Amino acid sequence: MDLSASAAGWFLIPLVPLCLHVVWSDLSQLKIRNGTVEAIAMVYILMGPFVLPLEMYLWNYAHLLVMLAIGLVFNAAGAMGGGDVKFLAAAAPFVARPDLPAVAYLLAGAMLLSYILHRIAKHSPIRRLVPDWESWHSGRRFPMGFPFATALILYLSLVALGRL
Questions:
Q1: Distance, CA of 107 to CA of 109 (rounded, Å)
Q2: pTM for the full predicted model
């Protein structure tokens, strides 16, 4: 089953500010707060039954479990932070299974663009606006909440606009 444009639009209303908070907190503190991830999950739990067909709503919980399992493996290997794992698991139910290939491309593009923009900002006068951001001094660690949240917003926006 595909995600409808209407459902994506309704999900965007509460998710945009939550995703922007994820971006800000991960860039500034290298942390994705549990409360924000819980709020993202609650959007699906509370709105899903009203905007999705019941079968799709229930099956999409499997997406959460699969992403949580994959994320825990990456976390145990030291390749991903716990906040990133929780965010991906909470975001997974919003993605329709047929859209996974498109979401993979969106995520890859968001990761590349986020990295480039972060590095440009790090070495530009923009850095003076937020000099205390931990992501400036994080070495090899990169705030993955930035591309993850960006990809979720882009995906839902494209679906809402009928472009995906």
A1: 5
A2: 0.95
Helix (H, G, I), strand (E, B) or coil at 69: helix
Residues 77-109 have pLDDT tens digits of: 999 999 999 999 999 999 999 999 999 999 999
Model confidence pLDDT, tens digit, residues 33-82: 999 999 999 999 999 999 999 999 999 999 999 999 999 999 999 999 99
Please, which residues have CB within 8 angstroms of residue 70's CB and are 6 or more apart in sequence? none
Residues 6+ apart with CB under 8 A from 139: none
Residue 149 sits in which domain range? 5-160
Q: How far apart are CA 56 and CA 2, in angstroms?
A: 9
SS3 160: helix
**Number of structural domains the chain divides into:** 1
